[in-house]
Design goal:
globular, 6 helices, single chain
């Protein structure tokens, strides 16, 4: 079974869909970090050197294990040639 088919199948369960939705912001951050590194053309090891950390730390950041501080995100952005932008958006609540 392909991953996208498995995901679609699992998301038919309302409880799974709710939990998956709760992680959406976290998944978005992880994807944005990986895209920033790839756009910069850096390997994890090269990025780690620019950030003055280890490759395993970069791997943990990109895998979502742990929640990076804004300071770490700023260092990551600078090392990849990006600017960190954080925003607050209103939550749409059902009436």
């Amino acid at each position: 079974m392909k991953l996208k088919d498995l995901k679609a199948s699992l998301l038919t369960n309302p409880e799974v869909r709710k939990e998956y939705g709760a992680l959406e912001d976290e998944f978005s951050l992880i994807a944005a970090m990986a895209k920033a590194r790839l756009r910069s053309g850096l390997t994890q090891a090269q990025l780690a050197k620019r950030m003055k950390t280890t490759q395993s730390t970069v791997a943990r950041l990109e895998s979502g294990r742990g929640k990076p501080s804004t300071r770490t995100l700023t260092r990551f952005a600078k090392a990849t040639g990006h600017r960190l932008k954080i925003s607050f958006e209103p939550v749409n609540k059902a009436k």
